[in-house]
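Entry type: protein chain
Record version: 2
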Amino acid sequence: MKYKVNLQKTVEGYSVWVPGLPGCWSQGQTEAEALENIKDAIEAYLATVEELTKDKESRYVEVANV
């Protein structure tokens, strides 16, 4: 699965966030480190969503790749 991420150079390195997952962000000293760190943040974000919604009635839909 792919997620669009935005990067911003900062004084400390790079900040990275996922526009499609509000509040999902990370950082790193290099662009490569920030991109690697956001993978962990996305996995943790999705696991948290799954845990918070496990007792809710849910459905899954498939959408075309953009």
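Comment: Helices lie at 31-52.
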